[in-house]
């Protein structure tokens, strides 16, 4: 990203200022900021305007539907992002820790899926169904994976064929959930896209309450997805190792 990119923060007001960096992964520079006297989170990255328009539009829709998500804060002239910079509301809370916490997360994810049925695909992304034929989509390049690994991933995704699509969060790990007694918030929507809901539901302790077969399908598809998205770091290789060989896929 451009070193001068943070100059754009002035478009949220003369008093807008960075406070401290936050963990934001490799794709973005994420900071806690102060805007209009309130704490907020700002994310600077290299995503296209079309991608940012999709994400900010989704977050506003989810907020109106009653989900707790980071809501984009407009610039002083009403834009939801500018020069790769997005400023969003800050959400406090801790990660899910107990089985009851994870059941609440599952309920929130199901609400997300319910209110986004038929949502258009994120620009440049591919769904698991698309990748049964396509080779690439944003961060995924199946051509970089071993052919046997690709076959395993596609066999796992093929078990989802024909299911209706919606928006999936794409990475509902404990770092991306903020729980309080009153609500469950989902943050970090970098991996969200249109796909089948199963990819979000392979939760710890089977918190979504899937039957054995459904949980196996979701777990295998999710592991295959994370292997493909992260290829070829150590985490991706561990996730691929969880995906059964083709002869074992049902």
Automatic annotation (TrEMBL):
Domain Aminoglycoside phosphotransferase: 19-207
Segments crossing the lipid bilayer: none
A molecular function GO annotation: kinase activity
Keyword Transferase: yes
InterPro entries: Aminoglycoside_PTrfase (IPR002575), Kinase-like_dom_sf (IPR011009)
Pfam families assigned: APH
UniProt keyword list: Kinase, Transferase
The keyword Thylakoid belongs to this UniProt entry's keyword annotation: no
Chain segments annotated as coiled-coil in the UniProt record: none
Name of this protein: Ser/Thr protein kinase RdoA (MazF antagonist)
Species annotation: Actinoplanes octamycinicus
